[in-house]
Amino acid sequence: MTFQSGPRFLRVTIVALVALALTGLSSAVPASAVTWSGITSERVAALTPTGGTVILGWASQTGDRFAVADVSGAAPVVRVAALDASGWTSNAETPGTHTYRVTRTPGDGSGSSGSEVTVLVPTRELLVSGSALATAVAPTSNASGVTFDTAMTPGHAAMSPDRKHLAVAFTGATFIELWLTDIAGNRQRQLTQGAFDMDPDFSPDGRTLAFTRRSKASNGPPAVYLLDLTAPAGDPSGEPVAVPGGTDTAMPSWTPTGDAVVVEEHTLTDDGNGNQVDAGPTGLAVLTRTGQRTVLAGTSGGEYPSVSRTGRVAFGRFDLATGQGDIWVTDLKGAPALRWSPTPPAGTSSVYVEPAWDPQGDTIAATFHAGASPGSTGPVTIAAAGASPQGWRTAEWTWDSTHPSWVDLIDAAPVVVLSAPTTSRYSAVTASFSVADGDDGVGGLGATCQVDTRVPQPCTPGTWTLADLADGPHLLTVRVTDPAGRAGEAKRTVVVDTGTRLSDFNGDGFTDLVARDAAGTLWLYPGNGAGGFLPRHQIGTGWNIMTAIVTPGDVTGDAVGDILARDSAGRLWLYPGNGKSGVSTRRQIGSGWNVMNAITNAADLNGAGGPDLLARDTAGNLWLYPLSGNAVFGARTRIGTGWNGYAFRGPGDLSGDGRADILARDPAGALWLYRGDGAGHVTGRSRVGTGWLVMNGLATPGNWDRVYGNDILARDISGRLWLYPGTNTGGVQTRRQVGAGWQGFSYIG
After folding, report:
1. H helices of 369-471, where?
2. Are 722 and 704 in contact (CB under 8 A)?
3. How far is CA 545 from CA 541, 566, 571, 577, 596, in A?
4. 594 φ, ψ (degrees, to nearest 5)
5. What pLDDT, on a 0 to 100 scale, did the predictor assign at position 150?
6. Mean pLDDT score of the chain, rounded to an integer?
7. For residue 718, what pLDDT is reported?
C-alpha cells in the first residue's frame, strides 16, 4: 500500500470558478451580444478567527473590466479596482455581514452597470461527509463546499479542541484510515493504517483520539480504541490501544471530564458464511478509559451519541414500526430522555439522525431525511431541556451529506472566579475557585495555582488548601488555559497574621480591647490596626458580678469576637459578639468554674484551628479547655503543675514557629515564654525579661500594631498603657506608650 504524503483539500467552488474564468477567456463573445446578468454565485467559508473566504462569480465578456467594493459601511471600500476575470476570491474578509458591489465596465465602451450581494462571512461551519466532505455554514448565512484532492473518499471528521486540526476518516479500496489535517485541509500526518478506522473524536484536552476500529470489514465487529496524539513519532505509546471492555462498541463521544466516552453497544450476527458481522446498535453506555462500562439508562435503541461540553447526551433513535427517526437528549446519569426533534407534518415521515452538539452546547446539527428526499444536515438551536427546538433548518449545500461535526474558530477564554479570605489568623488558608468556559469541557482546561512567586502547581476547580503560610501578605494566582491556548486568570491577596487574636467586635478586621471599669461598665476600645485606639463604645453595665472575664476571640465560628464570663456562682457564660461593637443574648456553657482561680485566653494552643481556654485550679494545676464549633468544650488536658503565683496569658505564637505559646510572669517579676508544641502542651521555657512586677495589668492582643509578630500590652502602676512589639522570635522590641489613665480598670483583655 502506498500512502500519500501531502495531498490538499481544494474548495470545489474555487476550482469551478477558475474553470469558468478560463472558459470565458477562451470562448469570449462580443460585449454587445449578451446583457450582463450580474453576480451569479457567491460562496463563503470560515478560515481563521479574523479572516474568512468570500468567492463571487459572474459572467465575463471580452474586454470587460470589473471593480469590487465593500459597501457595507458609510463609505465604500475598494477591494479590487480593475479585474478582467469572471470572479473574485478573498481569504481575508472580516467575519460578519458584508454587502459587495461589483461594477462592470464593458469593453465596447457602453455604460457601466453594477450588481450587489449581501453575505455573512462565518467563523463557524458544519463539516459533513457525503460524496465529498463539504462545509455548511450555520443558519442565516451562505455556504460553500470543499473536497479533497485525493484518491480516497473523506468521511466523518472531527475538529480538535485547539481549533487547529481535523481528524478525518478516509476510505480507500480496502481500508478506512484516519488522518490529521489542518483547518484549511492540508493533510499533516497519517494516524492509523491497515484497518477499518472511523468515527474519530478528540478528548476535551485534545491529547487523545477515540475512534471505532473494525478489523475485517466496514461491517465487522466494532471496538473502541484510543490513540495518544502526544506520543513521539515511532514510540510504541503512539500505537492505537483497545479500551478494555470496549468490544462490540462504536461511535465514541467524550464526556466533558475526558475520563470516559459514551458509546453505542452493538450485537453481532452470523452472515451465513461463519463470519461475525455487526447487527447494529442496541443502546448507549458510558465506557471509562480503564474499561468500566455502564449502560446509560433510557437509551435503548439509541445510536450516534454526541455529548455536549455541559454533559448533555444527544442521540438518535429510529422506530421501525413508524419509520420515524428522532433526536433525544438525556444526561450522563441516565435522566429520562426527552424528544427534541420536531414532529413531522401530518401524512409525512421525517427522520433525524446523527446529532452533533456545537462547542457551546446549545445547538445541535443532525442529518435529516424527509420522505424520499436525500439526506441533508441542518442545525437547530435548543432553548431549554424539554422545550421545542427553535430554528430547525436545513443548511445550504448539504444534500446527500451525513456525519455532521462543527468547525468553530472563535474560542472563548476561560473565566476564573477565585474566592479567598482577605485576612487569616491561621497559617493554613482555604481558598476556592471555579471556571466558566463557553465552549470547552472541563477536561480540556488546565489550571495552575500559584502562591507569590512559587512555581505554579497543577490544580483543579474547587477547594484550594494552602498550608504553612508565613505571616504577611500573599498573592494567590489561579490561571486556567484552554486547548487553544487562551487563558483566564484571577488573583487575590490574603494577609496571614497568626499573631492576630482577632477579638474583632466591630467587623473592621482589627483586634479590639475590652476593659471593665470600677463601676462595672464594660467598654470596647476598638483597635485602629496601627497600635492605637479608636473612640470607645460601651458594651454594657453591671459586669461587677462577674469574677472572671475572658476575650478569647471568636469561639462561635462567625468571625466576630466573643466574651466569656464567670459569675460568683461558678457559672460560665458566653456573650456572642454581634459584629456591631456589642454582644447579643448570653447563654450558659458551663458550671462549677469557681474551683478555678484564674481563667484566660489560650489562643489555638492545641492546633485545632480555634481559640481555647487556659484555667488554673486552686491546687496550681494548669488546664487546657479546647473549644470547637459553637463554643463547645472538648475534654480538658493538664498542661502542668505548680502554676500558683504565676500570672499567665495565651498570646498566640510569640516564637515565630507557627505554634501558640504561653506567656507567664513569675512571683519574682520575670516574664517567661513557654513554647507550645502545637498539640496542647508546652516545651522548654525562655526568659523574655525581668522587672515586670511594676506591671499590674497584662494583655496579649496578638499582632496589635500589625507590623511583625505578636505583641504585649501592659499597664504600669501609674495607669500608663505600654505596647511591647513582638520580635516573632520569642522576644519584644522597645516599648512605646499607647495610653494613660488606665489604672481604674479591673479587667483589660
Report:
1. none
2. no
3. 10, 9, 11, 20, 16
4. -75, -5
5. 52
6. 83
7. 95
Contacts for 704-707 with beta carbons within 8 Å, 24 or more apart?
704/511, 704/527, 704/531, 705/530, 705/531, 706/497, 706/500, 706/510, 706/529, 706/530, 706/531, 707/531
Query: What is the three-class DSSP state of 694?
Result: helix
Phi, psi for residue 16 in degrees, rounded to 5:
-65, -40
Instruction: Name the residue among 336, 523, 495 with its Cα closest to residue 426.
Output: 495
- DSSP-derived 3-state class of residue 483: coil
* Strand intervals (E) in 470-545: 472-481, 487-496, 513-517, 522-525, 537-540
Task: Give the CA angle between residues 567, 570, 571 to the nearest 5°.
Answer: 70
Strands, E assignment, 215-362: 222-228, 241-247, 249-254, 260-270, 276-288, 293-295, 302-307, 312-319, 324-331, 338-339, 350-357
Q: Which three cell numbers stand for residue 496?
A: 496571614
DSSP letters, 40-98, are EEEEEE--SSS-EEEEEEE---TT-EEEEEE-SSSS-EEEEEEE-SSEEEEEEEPSEEE
12 secondary structure, DSSP code: H
Q: pTM for the complete prediction?
A: 0.63
489 vs 26: CA distance, rounded Å: 60
657 — pLDDT class (breaks 50, 70, 90): confident
Beta bridge partners, 282, equal none
CB atoms within 10 A of CB 645: 11
Residues 420-474: tens digit of each pLDDT? 988 776 678 899 999 999 889 999 999 999 999 999 999 999 999 998 788 778 9
Alpha carbon 68 to chain centroid, angstroms: 46
Asked if 702 and 710 touch (Cβ cutoff 8 Å), the reply is: yes
Of the chain, the percentage scoring pLDDT greater than 90 comes to 52
Q: Which of 467, 445, 429, 563 is nearest to 207 (CA)?
A: 445
Total residues belonging to the chain: 749
Summarize the chain as % helix, strand, coil (round to 5): 5, 50, 45
Residue 492 neighbours by CB under 8 Å, 6+ apart:
418, 419, 420, 422, 431, 475, 476
Q: Answer for the pair 482, 437: CB distance below 8 angstroms, yes or no.
A: yes
Mapped onto helix, strand or coil, the DSSP state of residue 693 is helix
